[in-house]
């Protein structure tokens, strides 16, 4: 055992220099299947060490494998679950009952306008074929012909229109006064004058004409009236005394 400590130290240094051929490299994994060991080389020392203890971080490859599975293995995807139970439907804004009610209302309004005895809106034209004089007081003008009387709301014998459908109506009259008389005709609603036509001429005949739009409610009454002292000139061959009315717009 004649080897000195100097010779042993020199041998150890040579061994370390041969083993440490790669100098200055960082730690890196040498085996993907066994990432627990790393080769290090720093200075003149080299070797293998275990991975430091502690939880392993999620690498890019690990994250990809967790989502898509390993390259050679089946995908690790979670199958979608069954659809949930559908909630109960809300109440419709326009239910069938509401639609039926609106339809019935419309039919009711149309029924009021049309009526069971006609097929149109209230309208009439009445004609008087003989003279009329008001010597003792104002009198209601009556008629003996109704060429038009849709809805039968006008009574020729009384000369009165009775409203059955509320709305806006237009009434007009044209009546020829007798020659040499001072005559006036009024249009009245429920006994109150709405319009009047007046002539003071005595030399010849003239037509007294007037018209007005009137808002009526159900059961309102409209008629024409001859003022006292007036005389109307009727004729069987000429419609010289005429009263008309019709519905413009219902309410």
Automatic annotation (TrEMBL):
Stored InterPro entries: C1q_dom (IPR001073), Collagen/C1q_domain (IPR050392), Tumour_necrosis_fac-like_dom (IPR008983)
One Pfam family from the record: C1q
Naturally occurring in which organism (per UniProt): Branchiostoma belcheri (Amphioxus)
Gene field: LOC109471211
Region of interest: Disordered: 42-61
The name this protein goes by in its record: Cerebellin-3-like
Signal sequence annotation: 1-24
Predominant place of localization: secreted
Keywords, sorted A to Z: Secreted, Signal
C1q domain: residues covered: 117-251
Subcellular location: Secreted
Listed GO CC annotations: collagen trimer
Keyword Lyase attached: no
